[in-house]
Design brief:
Radius of gyration: 27 Å
Number of strands: 6
Oligomer: single chain
Structural class: alpha/beta
Helix content: 25-40%
Strand order of the largest sheet: 2-1-3-6-4-5
Distance between the termini: 16 Å
Shape: elongated
Order of helices and strands: EEHHHEHEHEHEH
């Protein structure tokens, strides 16, 4: 698969990448599965609701059992009452994880990369860095490449690059080992260094 190369001034030729990683058929069902699994595995079981034993209510009987004409009531913490406990409350230790086999995950990432290549959304650079940890420098660099929203995947992130990218909403810089399906499908363009492509090809075989 031929990928477009760019530099700080725009286009700069092509780069030959592995067909095994960048020329696979698009498997929509598999991509959907790994995206959903990645988002589910990122969830924190922090939500919790109170049952009738946990809500703060008096245990006094609201009215006498018989003779009032109203329905029987034992205490105001009943789930039938407004402000009462939940019958089946959400637990904070609920498990949201989805299991995805390693082979499926790798195939899904390769499928996403292949589709991005077909849609001409991947650009290759020799290396990606900035001289100083300044947001303005990185913003100018991305603009000079003719890109708007971009995910930058490098083989190693230096401190200047990390600090420069923190305040840009449309730019994300990650290490190739942390490339995930959600980030890949979120941004209009993906910029890869040559060293990152070599690592990707080795990881996804």
């Amino acid at each position: 698969m031929e990928l477009k190369m760019v530099n700080d001034k725009g286009g700069a030729g092509t780069f030959k990448a592995s067909d095994e990683v960048f020329a696979r058929d698009f498997n929509e069902a598999l991509v959907h599965q790994i995206v959903v699994a990645f988002q589910a595995n990122a969830r924190i079981g922090s939500r919790a609701q109170k049952d009738r034993g946990a809500v703060r209510h008096s245990t006094k009987k609201p009215w006498r059992q018989k003779g009032t004409g109203r329905a029987r009531a034992g205490m105001t913490s009943s789930p039938l009452w407004r402000g009462g406990g939940k019958i089946f409350p959400n637990s904070p230790d609920e498990n949201f994880t989805h299991k995805v086999n390693r082979k499926m995950y790798r195939a899904g990432i390769a499928s996403i990369l292949s589709q991005l290549a077909r849609e001409d959304r991947i650009r290759v650079v020799e290396q990606f860095s900035v001289d100083q940890p300044k947001t303005k420098l990185l913003a100018q660099k991305v603009k000079s490449m003719g890109l708007d929203g971009v995910l930058v995947i490098t083989d190693a992130i230096d401190e200047n690059l990390m600090l420069s990218s923190r305040n840009l909403a449309n730019v994300e810089v990650i290490d190739v080992r942390h490339a995930d399906p959600v980030s890949l499908v979120r941004y209009p363009h993906v910029v890869l260094t040559k060293a990152a492509i070599a690592k990707l090809e080795q990881m996804l075989k």
